[in-house]
Amino acid sequence: MLFRSCAADPAMLRDAEGYLPLARYGALGDGRAVVLSGADGSIDWWCVPNMDSPALFDRLLDGTLGGYFAITPTEAFTSEQRYRDDSNVLETIFTTATGRAKLTESLNSGTAGRLPWAELARRVEGLDGHVAFALTLRFGRRADTVSPYFARAGGHDVFHVGAVLGLVRCSDHVVIERQGDDGIDGRIAVSQGQRATVGIVAGADEPLVVPPIEAIDGRIDLSDKEWRDWTQALDWSGQLHCDGARRALAIRSALALKLLLYSPTGAIVAAATTSLPEKVGGPKNWDYRYAWIRDAGYTIKAFLRIGAHAEAKAGFTWLLKRLGQGVPKVCYTLGGDPVPEVREIDIPGYCGSKPVVTGNLATDQHQHGIYGDIFETAERFVACGNILDGQSAATLSHLADLCADRWRQKDAGIWELTEVQHYTMSKISCWQALQRAVELADAGQIPTTCRDRWARERDRIMDWIGEHCWDEERGAYLCYPGAKGLDASLALAVRFRFDGQDRLARTLDAIDRELGAGAFHYRYTGMEQEEGCFLACTFWMVEARAILGQHDRAEAALAAAMDGLKHGTGILPEMIDPKTGDYLGNLPQGLSHLALIQAIATLGGAEL
């Protein structure tokens, strides 16, 4: 196993306020929601039924009073958390003074794909000796302040939490000792060869199915098989060009990206959580449970690169439909609507980091990067042998016209800053969009009516960047004309095939000097006081050096980064503290995983 989260007794896992290090979580998913399960057997995050629904369990953001679903040994223990090979089914091995037991967890699917209800399954198996567990279920505080309660219906005790209707199902060896409106307390005891299963079936504003516990238990292994079949299909495509340890890294990231694809619509969320801080105690806490054009475009490209064509097609279709609805926005809800305004929720936040929020300010920003993102995605889609339909071609042609019209304007940049500027990366993204538009027109994929105009504006952008954004004394492209700082996202310009490889190589060296912190990189100048290092930036640097032929430096950089991340389960966050190795920001973070896939594939010699 490349990733294996190890921990000692509970006192060494959670701090005094009840918070678990983010690296100690594994993620489960079913194409609709994502669960975070800790190495101490506590599920601390689950939004039901969708990733952007209110949280049924929210201990992640309130260590004392938050909701959770724990199956934890009653004695002191050590634990080892890991995924089954090529699967998103999670296993945790608990060792106590009296024995060993395994907890296997799945957000279940069925034989025909995602179930039409949410089904969380947790199986406890005795491996050696005897192990006793405490079972505790408490409901979260974020269900619009509605008090939870249990009621009798159809011969079963069902719980109501806001709009969510749910049911707890148990097998033999599970004893429920108390049930109240706030939750359940019970115990599980297993000896070698014995096993017990607990499942939650739930939905929101819809009828509730009551499957037998045997069916819930059986779907754990069925779900595992479905995950393994999916990952093995990626190998058949032959796109990844890597094996051994590198293959395992790429597959783990591919599985994480698959968790972030919202199957009812094809939207791809940036991350599965909200309000996890970019610096503990700091205010930079955002809701990432929405679909960004940038993140979705990059993820689609990663899916294409590993041969996940169904996922790429679903995401690309969703993107084009959103972009065909007028002036494009930076991000959308999973249903394709505008993201709601930011609303603060009065709970403590992870390790006391406020605010806790829903909604996102980025929806009303303008970012030139969306043009480059969608055209790079379209170009990759076509380069893989696929075909654009007439409506999509017309949408892309219109977007190229918008880009040609608007590239001279200031924008919020890739980092969604409040200060609008002529950001260098934004101008490169406009160049990228028009270059790809010309290529698509020349290939007969989109209308050629404005092709020559796109080419002229592309060349003007190139000249403007060369005149205003390069600093010969610094030996780097600046964040924006006249700025003193650098921007690590400029590493992406190498992948975008932006001209001037000598200048780009010198820019990479400057980024390493000024933004590097050990194996990792800050996003842009000045961020070391406000946040951790941004993982995607480091992987972009690896990929850029590989493209420029600096393979030894790229290999060494990737090895150093992965060494700093090896204490987790393989689920990557947005950021990392370069001094402590602590994970920061929302997770699983799509940008981190897709950037790792791209770096591995490029080092393996796969075509861009």
Automatic annotation (TrEMBL):
Q: Where is the Trehalase-like N-terminal domain?
A: 21-99
Q: Which residues cross the membrane?
A: none
Q: Which residue intervals define the domain GH15-like in the entry? A: 245-600
**What keyword terms does UniProt attach to this protein?**
Hydrolase
Please give the Gene Ontology molecular function terms for this protein: hydrolase activity
Checking PANTHER family in the record gives: GLUCAN 1,4-ALPHA-GLUCOSIDASE, TREHALASE
> Protein name, please?
Glycoside hydrolase family 15
Instruction: Provide the species name.
Output: Sphingomonas hankookensis
